[in-house]
Amino acid sequence: MDAFARSATRRAHVLLVEVPGQWRTRAAVERAVLTRGWSLAMSPADADVLAVCGRPRPQLEKATGLVWHQMSGPRVRVDVADDAPAAEALDQAQARLLGTEHHRHDSDSRPVAAHLLSANKGHDQESLNHGSMDHGDGDDGTMRHDGGDESGGEGMDHGSMGHESMDRGDEGDGTMRHDGGDEGGGEGMDHGSMGHESMDHGGHGGHGGHGGNGGNGGNGGNGGNGGMEMAPGGIALAEGGEDRDGLEMDVLYVRLGPVLPHWPAGLVLRCALQGDVITEAQAEILDAETQQRHAGPTAGPAAGLAAGPARILDNTVSLLALAGWEDAAAEARRVRDAVLEGGDRASCAVKLDRLRAKVARSRVLRWSLRGIRPLGHEELERHGLPPHLDGDTYDRLLGMLERAGDSNGKLASPLPLDKLPHLVTGLDLAAARLVIASLDVHELQPGHVHDETSGA
Amino acid sequence: MSEPSVTTVAPAWALAAVAILGALVVLAAALDGALTARGNDAASGAGGGVATPLWEAARLMRQRRRRTVEADGMLWRLGGAGLVVTAVLMVAVVPLGEWTIFDLDVGVMWFNAMDVMVWALVWLTGWGANSAHSLVGGYRFLAHGLGYELPLMFALVAPVIAAESLNVGRVAAAQENSLWFGLWMPVAFLVYCLGVVAFSVWGPFAPALGADIASGVGAELSGVDRLVFEVGRYALLAAGSAFAVPMFLGGGAGPLLPGWTWVLIKTVSLLLLFIWLRRRLPALRPDKFMELGWMVLLPAVLVQDLVVAVVMVWRG
User: Fold this and answer.
1) How far apart are CA A76 and CA A88, in angstroms?
2) What is the pLDDT at residue A303?
3) What is the ipTM of this complex?
4) Which end of chain B is less enclosed by CB atoms within 10 A, N or C?
5) Per-window interface: A 361-380 vs B, CB < 8 A
6) Please, is B177 exposed, middle or buried when counting C-beta atoms within 10 Å of its C-beta (0-12, 13-18, 19+)?
7) CA A206 – CA B72 distance, rounded (Å)
């Protein structure tokens, strides 16, 4: 039995939680995980160890707690402070994984799902701009949309847009109007569900299928009974909405982040999905206020001369991994680690060249990334995005590898958060993830989200 | 064509077939573990990753099963377990040298029916969990399916035309003393290999399990459920490799060694090639692949079928 437990911990899977500004700690843990022959988990279900890199502030801590609840036992949480040696933390985790008695107790004292769902509902509603939006009225509520949608100052754009310049406010109109018309009550329930699982939930997709089968009858029913039946098990069903071709299609609200592999730290993207297409999105950075009150995120170990190239390589790893090319992602990770270790410059440069050549050689990669969310000069300028994001996702990948060669490169300036929704709206999830990774985010700058909601 | 080309063995031998399939799964997982360890610069203390399947299996058996709120538990688990069963049913019609468990007249159609079943099984695994990411993964697999399935069917047609039989043993026998089908119908063989990799949700066809959607179909699987699902994928890959041997690689034909060893050698070679390929190619995104499947692969295999048919008529 003991030998069994030991071999079971020989290859633990580790789910990483990165506190904003702590990417170096995360990179160190990542490497420690891989060199000991362990594996990085992609979801809570897959994980044995939850490794929290840095000290999470309240909102992220809460999200981390929810992820923790979703992990099946035996499970262990380790907190890795920024200067702590990662390998030791993992040794500790392995030792604690072996304690069978402890895990038996842990599983007996778990809260039941219903309890968790109800405990988190209230919080979600207030934290969601969405939830406080235009629900419960039957008219089309144009006034409310301006207040409700969060991308600051963009309410002004209404009506002026063709597809290209379409901003969130505009899209909000289409879907929101529909909601208002279709559903009477029960909205609170609906949005309540968005928040409660920070990562892989949203589960309601399955029931979305039911709605589709039932045809329009399902929608009529919604308005009437609001409440329990719309949210079996506390998770809301998808609601109806018009898709991009003007046809009826379920709308499902799903949160992406903050605990998601290859995802900018602390970012939460609230998406309205039709199928896997993002029809509407809203970005938020967790603990935005507390973070600013504390020392700036550039302080700490992240400040340093080699930071820029290493950070860019780190983002390259993400992009290559999201493109599903494991070999290249592993190679980029090795180059990143060599740079972070401060290895000698010449050998790092050689490795980087090899990686660059490998990436440029792959036709499949080019075919796969070409044409995803091209950004022109004017558009970049208009949105205040850096000029090096020019081109499509493939161009941006090559650009990242180019910039990684500048060994004096510093961390890039923060990217304005409120531009993200605009960049991913209308894309499917896969493309949206690739686009976000291709933006080479070093740090996100919280927008003016709060001003707008208070104006609603 | 009256003489049966293979001997049907007693049903109990099916256990031997399952054992061989199991051995192939372990071998494949070990190689994948070794390649992953090498790619990650894992320390030598980690055993070079060869023991990965052992540790991974122990880990998953020790991990608790987990269910999601309002999951359709039965269909969800049916999906994962079904993959293993499907793989076993596939190898049932593959002759091991001169023996077969199930000498079906329409063995090729049987294999085809099994690989279509995988559509339902993978999708059910994604659907049953009642989770958005899983469901997106399930639909990604269906999107891939729309791209690879028809080319795969027509790729299977080519050897059938040449052998004038849907019986797997006869297809293998038709390659005796002549060029292997894989060599003179390379397009069909390549498309077939692509299809095998695709229905195993493997390598470039793994967006259904993609990192971007927290491993998609597998996002909510834990413990034994995940173990069964992963074993199922490897088993499908192994079964697909095994089926390629009578169809394209001359069956048990080979010098010196007896037929059954050649079948195993060829199966293992193809399987290891698939494993090795996994890390080396970027994902084929389903929306993009659809275009490739219909605009390039489908016409290509149809032309291949035509060429084979013309050659056969001309010969006959």
Assistant:
1) 14
2) 46
3) 0.90
4) C
5) 362, 364-365, 367-368
6) exposed
7) 9
Give percent of chain B above pLDDT 90: 51
Which band of pLDDT confidence, cut at 50, 70 and 90, is reported for residue A154? very low
Letter for the amino acid at A419? K
A81 lies in some domain: yes
Asked if residue A213 and residue A352 are part of one domain, the reply reads: no
Q: What is the CATH number of the domain that holds A33?
A: 3.40.50.12280
- Tell whether A289 is covered by a domain: no
Answer whether residue A283 is part of any domain: no
**Over 50: is that where the pLDDT of A380 sits?**
yes
Q: What is the pTM of this model?
A: 0.80
Helix or strand holding residue A281 (H, E): strand A277-285
Q: Hey, which of A91-100, A292-301, B117-126 has the most confident mean pLDDT?
A: B117-126
Confidence of residue A1 (pLDDT cuts 50, 70, 90): low
B-chain CB neighbours of A86 within 8 Å are: none
| pLDDT per position as a tens digit, A392-418 | 899 999 999 988 887 677 777 778 788
- Residue A127 shares a structural domain with residue A247: yes
Closest-CA distance, A455 to chain B, in angstroms, reads 32
- Tens of pLDDT along B37-58? 888 877 655 567 788 888 899 9
Q: Is the distance from CB of B36 to CB of B52 less than 8 angstroms? A: yes
Chain A residues with CB under 8 Å of B204 CB are: 324, 364
State both tokens at B136. Answer: 């997106």
Domain that holds residue A314: 294-452
End-of-domain residue from the set A204, A233, A256: A256
Looking at the fold, whether A32 and A155 belong to one and the same domain comes out as no
A:101-160 residues touching chain B, CB 8 A cutoff: 107, 113, 117
Which stretch of A41-50, A289-298, B12-21, B287-296 has the lowest confidence by average pLDDT?
Answer: A289-298
A131 and A60 inside one domain: no
- The answer to whether residues A89 and A153 belong to one domain is no
A28 and A143: one domain? Answer: no
Q: What three-state secondary structure class fits B115?
A: helix
- Let me know whether A80 and A157 are in one domain: no
DSSP A240-285: EEE-TTS-EEEEEEEEE-SS-TT--TTEEEEEEEETTEEEEEEEEE
Residue A59 forms part of a structural domain:
yes
